[in-house]
Write a structure and sequence with these properties.
With about 210 residues, the protein is an all-alpha fold. The protein contains ten helices and no strands. Keywords: DNA-binding, Transcription, Transcription regulation.
Length: about 210
């Protein structure tokens, strides 16, 4: 029963944070959605930050199950294909209106809002995906320069998460309700933009 109660709280937290982000999301709404009480949150998580972390981890697991970062590639695949696969996964999550899109919605409604636990989130996301992104960017750009890799990672993240950070998400990007083929076409165009931006980076940090 305790596990069921904890899972219900996480499921409710994912919904609340996906709709409102960390700052605006209320523990009272999470509790209500789970049919629980505040004491249950304190018992299982101890704080709003910790239930947020649990929700973020589960939301990423849900997203990565449907749209895995590595796609169907193995370690021997060319670096450009690996970069494109991660970008494709992130972009597809942004267009997904189901639970596989919750991770991007949470991030889009949280990361640039004052008062959000940015460092906490970055520490979590680093192990989820960012360490892998940095590894394949280093392989793609053939550099170990920390400043260049940070620059590349920033470019990649900004362009790959462009859709989920728009106030209306993907709304207005298409003349009507988009067909899957149209979404995939837009994703491939955006991947081209990402790769072009990475290729445009200098070989060494300008001084």
């Amino acid at each position: 029963m305790a596990t069921d109660a904890k899972e219900k709280l996480i499921e409710s937290a994912i919904r609340v944070f996906a709709e409102q982000g960390f700052r605006a999301g209320k523990v009272a709404d999470i509790v209500k959605g789970a049919g629980a009480n505040i004491a249950a949150v304190n018992y299982h998580f101890g704080s709003k930050e910790q239930i947020f972390v649990a929700a973020l981890r589960q939301a990423f697991a849900d997203a990565n199950e449907v749209y895995p970062s590595k796609g169907d590639l193995d370690e021997s695949a060319p670096a450009e294909q690996k970069v494109a696969a991660v970008a494709r996964a992130v972009l597809r999550r942004s267009f997904d209106e189901g639970k596989a899109g919750n991770f991007n919605r949470i991030m889009g409604k949280t990361m640039h809002v004052p008062g959000s636990p940015v460092e906490l989130i970055l520490n979590e996301v680093r192990s989820m995906e960012l360490d892998y992104v940095e590894k394949i960017l280093a392989e793609y750009l053939k550099t170990k320069s920390p400043p260049i890799l940070e620059w590349a990672k920033s470019n990649f993240i900004q362009l790959a998460t462009l859709i989920c950070k728009r106030p209306g998400g993907s709304e207005g990007l298409f003349p009507g309700d988009p067909k899957p083929k149209e979404i995939e076409a837009m994703i491939e165009v955006q991947i081209g933009v990402i790769l072009a931006s990475l290729k445009a980076l200098p070989q060494k940090f300008p001084t």
